[in-house]
Design a protein that fits this description.
Shape: globular
Number of helices: 9
Number of strands: 7
CATH architecture of the domain at 42-166 and 205-240: 3-Layer(aba) Sandwich
CATH class of the domain at 42-166 and 205-240: Alpha Beta
Structural class: alpha/beta
């Protein structure tokens, strides 16, 4: 494959790393992309975050504040990093993911479900909380997702969502931009699929500004909405309103 070609992902989907698709095209491309990079996904994450992704997940579980025995959804669970942490904390994880490749590569004995998290096969108010790691920007649309999460999480239940973000500090933002857009694709190319890791940094453009995301969560039925920013990542937590 030369630098000017576009890789063909699973299902025959062609990835153009400079094009940000929408709607059904985005759903197909995201699913195929993650099917393709699943075998080395964990390795690339550890290398490109210097292992900080583990610390960020631990912080998310701490902020989730769920008690032992709680049933927690891991949305877009990937290879099960959050599921393992949930289980280690004495809770019961259920992982959902659109990518069969990710589920096949999962390293967890949690219950795993192949499903679109915009249409979860779960009853109303059936779980105690939910996590999501670095997947918000890969969804077809956020308001519908927040509504669906609010539907399945019981009143008083908590959510903790991680995703990438630019640092607030201008100097850090400059350095992060160079690393995320230039270095990460090189790491991805050496260890996995380079063009996939050219696309993923660009997909940050899908995320709305924080005030807008906060409003969408509130409209869906969440309060106590908070955001903690790390260098290169953000943690969003909220509580399902009691009505």
């Amino acid at each position: 494959m030369n630098d000017h070609s576009s890789p063909v992902l699973n299902e025959g989907v062609t990835l153009d790393p400079d094009h940000l698709p929408t709607g059904d095209e985005k759903r197909r491309q995201v699913r195929s992309l993650f099917d393709t990079i699943a075998p080395r996904y964990d390795l690339v994450n550890r290398v490109m975050t210097f292992g900080l992704d583990v610390r960020w997940r631990n912080a998310a579980l701490k902020r989730l504040g769920a008690s032992g025995g709680s049933v927690i959804l891991d949305l877009a669970c990937g290879t099960g990093d959050f599921c393992r942490g949930i289980q280690n904390d004495g809770m019961v994880p259920i992982g959902l993911d659109l990518s069969m490749g990710m589920l096949a590569a999962a390293r967890t004995d949690a219950a795993l479900v192949h499903a679109d998290i915009l249409q979860m096969p779960l009853p109303d108010s059936s779980v105690d909380g939910a996590t999501c790691g670095f997947a918000l920007r890969n969804l077809v649309e956020l308001p519908g997702f927040f509504n669906e999460v609010a539907r399945v999480v019981r009143p008083g239940g908590r959510i903790a969502f991680l995703d990438a973000c630019e640092p607030d500090n201008k100097l850090l933002r400059f350095g992060h931009g160079i690393y995320f857009n230039r270095v990460v694709p090189v790491i991805g190319g050496l260890l996995s699929e380079g063009r996939a890791y050219r696309y993923l940094p660009k997909s940050l453009a899908y995320l709305p500004p924080w005030p807008e995301m906060q409003e969408r969560l509130r409209d869906a039925g969440f309060d106590s909405i908070e955001r903690e920013v790390f260098v290169g990542a953000q943690l969003i937590t909220a509580t399902r309103v009691n009505h």
